[in-house]
């Protein structure tokens, strides 16, 4: 039996907000949060991102250079483990092309934002005593989640690819957890701890992003922040 496949999400705040709001995220001001573009990595552009930033989602190309680094880090994780991530809700990605949804799940499961009681809160409650693989298996029967994903995948500014198509672009999420910068990527062996946050979630994430950009030698990156919703948005 083939592995399940979902249409890939476009790295588009409109798609992310539709997905999240449909499943209970409060996106209305003054207490709500929503996804918004990060227009560049220069300090003068970063200052336009409303604070406090709760998460940063990154879409980037998977290159041989990146894969080499990832595998080396994953081997180190298997040998040494990772500190500070024991109570992070982490999903192993088992659904092809669903890295966008896994990035959104990793975000909303691990940040303090208002989410209405419903499919997401029920899913996260069931995840607490499960392994990453068992959490992923819960998603294969989450029909409402799959339906919302499909609708959001059709929302992007460009035409959605065919279901059988593979993509060489990948989503990961960066969140703060107990003062540490945590990277969540369903292809990994575990969450990755990038160390204590020194400047702030956004600024510290940008430093990691710059390293990955240098490694991949690509500018095909897109960053989205989960930030407070305000009346002037």
From TrEMBL:
Q: Which residues form the UCH catalytic domain?
A: 5-228
- Site residues, Important for enzyme activity: 185
**Residue numbers marked as site, Transition state stabilizer:** 93
Indicate yes or no for the key word Protease: yes
Q: Where is the active site?
A: 99 (nucleophile), 170 (proton donor)
Reported EC number(s) for this entry are: 3.4.19.12
Kindly state a single biological-process term from the GO annotations of this entry.
protein deubiquitination
Q: Which GO terms describe its molecular function?
A: cysteine-type deubiquitinase activity
> Per the record, what are the reactions this protein catalyses?
Thiol-dependent hydrolysis of ester, thioester, amide, peptide and isopeptide bonds formed by the C-terminal Gly of ubiquitin (a 76-residue protein attached to proteins as an intracellular targeting signal)
Q: Write out the similarity annotation.
A: Belongs to the peptidase C12 family.
Q: What is this protein called?
A: Ubiquitin carboxyl-terminal hydrolase
Q: What is the species of this protein?
A: Rhodotorula toruloides (Yeast)
Q: Lineage of the native species?
A: Eukaryota, Fungi, Dikarya, Basidiomycota, Pucciniomycotina
Chain's gene name? FGENESH: predicted gene_1.40
